[in-house]
Amino acid sequence: MMGHFATGVTVITTMDRSGSPFGLTANAFTSLSLDPPLVLVCIDKGVQCYPYFEESGLFAVNLLSENQEELSRRFATKGIEKFSGIQWRRGKQGVALLDGAIGHIECRIVNRYDGGDHTIYVGEVAHSSASGDRPLIFFKGKYHRLREGNPGRSG
Ligand SMILES: Cc1cc2nc3c(=O)[nH]c(=O)nc-3n(C[C@H](O)[C@H](O)[C@H](O)COP(=O)(O)O)c2cc1C
Predict the structure, then answer these.
(1) pLDDT at residue 4 above 50?
(2) Does 78 contact ligand 1 (Cβ within 6 A)?
(3) Can you say whether the dihedral through the CA atoms of 74, 137, 140, 45 is positive or negative?
(4) Which residue among 13, 26, 94, 141 has the highest number of C-beta atoms inside a 10 angstrom radius?
């Protein structure tokens, strides 16, 4: 049933104390507040990078483009070296920003809430940037692209 809600796809990145990058694919990402600027992400307590959210107090949201399905699959695969052979750089807070993403949102964790087998992390946006590319869409367990030539209607 939850799969009937169409979302974009993000890779949430964080780092350990030594600065090594970690990350996972996530669609449980929401814009929360404009003033102050807050976002939230829901992180499974069982993922490899889970401890590093608290360790660094930081995360970054990489909004994936329609050309990054492979990257989404990669960051949703357990037990692999996720950052080897991909293009990334450090943001202003040191957390990894993935090349080719349509947006980067660098956050400092300001709150956390228990959410069953997940933790809800609220991040205050410290820096953000966006490109004009098109998003990757996830719907009913599959990846999609926005249809060409469909700008939508208003009014
Ligand atoms: C489209 C998609 C969305 C996902 N959304 C989330 C999410 O919001 N939160 C989460 O904790 N895991 C989410 N996952 C699962 C993680 O990406 C997956 O468990 C990943 O392998 C965790 O990596 P790790 O344990 O190696 O760190 C999602 C996976 C996919 C494919």
Answers:
(1) yes
(2) yes
(3) positive
(4) 13
Rounded to the nearest angstrom, the distance between the alpha carbon of 7 and the centre of ligand 1 is: 14
pLDDT digits (tens, 9 = 90+) for 62-84: 999 999 999 999 999 999 999 99
Ligand 1 pocket mutation pick from 25, 117, 119, 142 by most atoms within 8 angstroms of CB? 25
- Taking residues 120-131, report their average pLDDT: 97
pLDDT at 151: 57
Place of tokens 């780092």: 15
Does the domain spanning 2-145 belong to CATH 2.30.110.10?
A: yes
Atom of ligand 1 nearest to the CA of 29: 8
According to the model, what pLDDT value does residue 148 have?
79
Question: Who's near 1: CB < 8 A, 6+ residues apart?
Answer: none
User: Which one, of 142, 64, 76, 133, lies nearest residue 104 by Cα?
Assistant: 64
* Residue 49 Cα: closest atom of ligand 1: 27
